[in-house]
């Protein structure tokens, strides 16, 4: 359920994480420590801390100095932003280097802060928790490819499975393999993976985490003309993705530079990500690959929540955190949930959560110009960094809000995205959207007025039942027009007011 009082409480404290990886140092400051954290600030410094680690076993002086400077700067930014809590975590490069302790001491001396060096099993655990936090009850294996290592573990809806592994197959060591072994790098990776990967015993889905793999996802979206170009939740047939990955890791530098959807910074590292993806899919044989924008940092954040907070629905939490503060009347969202509770007699749990989210978001465009409300609302919803939903579910909520703002079903601006949902699902979105529109118009977005009425759908009518003393409220051409629009979508012949 929606909870405006909790969402609007003035005690949200910013939370920050500095992640020291083998290739980059990143600071992410979240709006608060919550089930659906929104990043307020996200910046990284490419220090290449793991460069040469395989040959020397040590962190080089230059990358170490770069890392200390980056962490010092990020701590200063976090302090200036008023971050109430800042955690610093380090992964494979610092863990494996013989002089990793020297880096920890240098950071402590410069910033006064301790760092937490994660073990390989902890990396796999927190990356998998990140996927658990970012999806609705995910099942399958999770792989997190970083700069220095690859972690694979099992997600079992709300917890991490017992089987996990950390392998030296991050971007930096794989790039070295490709330079030294050429096509033989493929065989070397297979040797490292052999007998090490956890079995895919639950749902045949592989969840891919890491910047290199998200770059691969963006390239695939561009190559295939995906209807929705959002990396989180991008779902691809495993065979199709493996064929694409094979093509990418064999590309020449010139072709990589021209690869649509890939930044110039990523073009040099994407072959390693593509090669590891190719070999993983060969060895694991999943049916689907789902990409996740959430990983280690979000898993670490999720682990700090109480069990009650962890069990909150991330979609509902994100929708109300975004939608209720900008609504004209924040309490109207819960009233809309009650207003639409009887709209769909066959509603499943998964469909209900989408309806509740749409109610929370129904007034985000109230101040926009009437000519652009529907299209802008749709565009914002399908691209906003919500978590806990699939791409088709994004489109459903977007289509619902498009209809709520009187958007036409055949609007060219939404047709490509609509290919992700069935015509019946689109019709359901239109019904819900028009019901939300009617609720807003009938009540003036006032919960007390909406609660005086009940919407009933029969085989021959859309019926608005109002409490005694409120008989005159529906007597409006605008209200009657909204009822007729809802009746038209439902395919019923008439509308009725009943006191």
Structural class: alpha/beta
User: Biggest β-sheet: count, sense, barrel?
Assistant: 6 strands, mixed
Coarse morphology: elongated
> Termini distance?
29 Å
Q: Indicate how many domains the architecture comprises.
A: 3
In quaternary terms, these chains amount to: single chain
Low-confidence stretches: none
Give the CATH level 1 class of the largest domain.
Answer: Mainly Alpha
Rg over C-alpha atoms, rounded to the nearest angstrom: 25 Å
Folded structure, characterized:
The protein is built from 24 helices and 14 strands. It is α/β, with parallel strands linked by helices and 499 residues long. It has 3 domains: 4-117, ATPase, nucleotide binding domain (Nucleotidyltransferase, domain 5, 2-Layer Sandwich); 121-298, Exopolyphosphatase. Domain 2 (Nucleotidyltransferase, domain 5, 2-Layer Sandwich); 313-498, Hypothetical protein af1432 (Orthogonal Bundle), CATH 1.10.3210. It has a 6-stranded mixed sheet, with helices on both faces. Strands 3-2-1-4-5 form a 5-stranded mixed sheet. It has a 3-stranded mixed sheet with strand order 12-13-14. A hairpin with a 4-residue loop joins strand 6 (139-145) and strand 7. The chain is elongated. The two termini are 29 Å apart.
